[in-house]
Predict the structure.
Amino acid sequence: MLVRAPHVKVRHIGRFDERIAAHLDGIAVAGEAGWKCCETALATASAGAIFTATVRAIEDANEQGVDTLLSIAETLPSARTGLIAAFGWVSGQELKGLVSGLLQSTSHFRRMVGIASCAMHRVDPGKHLETAIVDPEPSLRAKALQVAGDLGRDDLLPRCIGSLGDPDAQCRFWAAWSGVLLGDRSAALAKLIDLGREPSRLSRNPLQLALMATELSAAHSLLVQIAKDRGHGRELIRSVAAAGDPSHVPWLIGLMSDLRFTRLAGEAFSWITGIDLAWLDLDQKPPEKVEAGPNDDPHDDDVALDEDYGLPWPDPEKVARWWHENAHRFPTGSRYFVGAPPSAPHCAQVLLDGYQRQRIAAAYWGCLLRADRIVFDCAAPSWRQRRWLERGR
């Protein structure tokens, strides 16, 4: 997914957004014929078809079309991603009246879409969020708990703490996640750590935020436990990066000689030091006969990209030499994130010119440093992100 790719910056997202906008403009110019094409594509009910049709219906103020698409997405969960993305794509002006109607709907799903729409545009749903956070429907509760953290609603921290024992797993997760973002370093943080140690299919890594929110000395103890539970593999490398302790850099450099971990270890090294390996010529050519991502076999169903796709291949000797000459800049006992201790100005700079994974972490650091701060949405359309950055949001 482009917005979580390790080699992508906001300008790259902008180029992709421009291509999407051009295709949507072509459908809009086609008028009725364009809408007919959208309706025909809905036979597949794919996320892309739903996204395109929903954007057109909203921008054309086609109330019947929007209602039909909402009904399709409510019936087919696989279509929901496309529908919700469309509400995030269009301008806030085009959602006036539409979202307020969704927030007052008797349908749990439509209220969830309304709350998600507000969150993507970083608009507070107000009392509707407070009502949804205690709703009997788990999916609506979970979304409300997530949005409470995203929008910096620290007044809802007691609700998040009270939901840590929710019978629904997603609700427990978002209650802990948002509780930490909203300033709790006790019950919510403990729950987030517990969730991170359990096998799960959560949409985000609980341990990354937990390590960022934990004091450095306590983070070291947590890393020891992660190594004991998970071994010295990918999860531990990601956790070391999140903790930001430069004392682990020599261990990362050692892993750069292992083809299984070399690129991820390089990313973790950059995550702590702020060094762009390719820019400083600290990388090397990819080794021969390394399989990465989909192959040409038509019978192989695995079409997923290598999760390290786009990362440079570090040269262990060059990196070790650089560290020997520069380690004094990163004293042990201090935490570093992309080359500097986490601070509001530094995180703002990372949001401006960092890579996507770094930018996402910078958005969360901003909230960890100030609990009432809105989480910067690094997945928003690029033009909206630039506007927020210009406003210092």
